[in-house]
Amino acid sequence: MKEFEITIEGKAYKVTVEDFNGKHGTVLLDGKKYNVEVSGADLRPSPPSFGRKPYTAAPGVRIQQPLSRPASPAQSTSPVPAPAAPAPSDRGGGNVTSPMPGLVLDIMVKVGDSVKQGAAVAKIEAMKMENEIPAPCAGIVKSIEVKKGDSVSTGDTILCIEVLRS
Question: Domain total for the chain?
Fold first, then answer.
């Protein structure tokens, strides 16, 4: 809520804006509630530009507004499930595959290394974020299919793990 003092024909009024979306809203004027509609320009504040020019859509292009986020994870009505780790293959091993397109920043293991399920074995940069790639199973690194600096696509094999049988 925002409070304003306005003067109309020399008389001061206290106005409290309860709700306003840029065109329509509810205000209290001297204790009485009014529904208001503003004609002309949209009065919502502009987002900060950070020195950049604002995006202007081409004629006929409709821009979708972002969805609002729930205040807490408990209020979420459609949680996004975490990606599942790939299952070991039927050939007795587990292929570590890229979950997204990106650039290989680091391979954190060598052929012959023993790894635990969930341990970080590689690091990929995607959309300017570093993403650690976990081992889908425990075992021994049997081959490495990429090297630092390689580009990978979603589903590309990064390395293979031989599953240890007990």
Answer: 2
